[in-house]
From TrEMBL:
Keywords: Oxidoreductase. The keyword Oxidoreductase applies. This is Uncharacterized oxidoreductase Rv0945. InterPro entries: NAD(P)-bd_dom_sf, SDR_fam. Its EC number is 1.-.-.-. Belongs to the short-chain dehydrogenases/reductases (SDR) family.
Amino acid sequence: MNRKNILITGASSGLGKGMAIEFAKQGCNLALCARRTEKLEALKEELLNINSNISVFIRPLDVTKQEDVFSVFNSFNEDFKTKNGTLDRVIVNAGMGKGASIGKGFANQNMQTAVTNFCGALNQMEAAMEIFRAQNSGHLVVISSMSAFRGYPRAMSVYAATKAGVRSLAEGIRADVLKKPINVSTIFPGYIQSEMTDSIGKPPPFMIPLEKGSKLLVKAINKEKANSFVPFWPWRFFKLLMPFFTLKMLRKF
């Protein structure tokens, strides 16, 4: 199915920016939002240089503010209507990776990650699905993580829990609209280079460059499968092994 008009949250950098560039190459019109508006302005110019035939709409957005999420999503929908189109796809991508071991004095950072990654994602899904239900069509894409399948120690504890939460939430929505012309896809990226991975220090295993990762993400999204692992190898293999990992193995992983 051809999804021409696409909304991406957290689009100012990392995977969001990378996906926007790949969709622009495919001739898609884009609605982009993030907290850092100056980066969105620069990205809009870059995208129009890539493909001058597309439309690019940008707005600032903090996904933890529910009223703002609904307002921005509805405004983008109206933008596409002015181009005789509809909002075809929403990619729930905005998130953060702050955090530390529970009980070590980083409660504020852990809560910020929890609220942004789960409650913020819920806000986005609510707003997107309200539009899709009204028009009886659309594709909801939720960017989860390979960390969604197990609990992890240290800085990954809260992050992994939020990604498990959005995975479950997306599956619930998928079941709810099973007989409707609305598709729901959950994407499980492995390690793809971004600002978040740059903050780790030592590069994690099996990490791929942002450009390659973005191409693979867009390819997976366009297939509209219920669940996709990006890249497929080795992460689909790890998914099969994860239930058998001991806690000692998880600490090292």
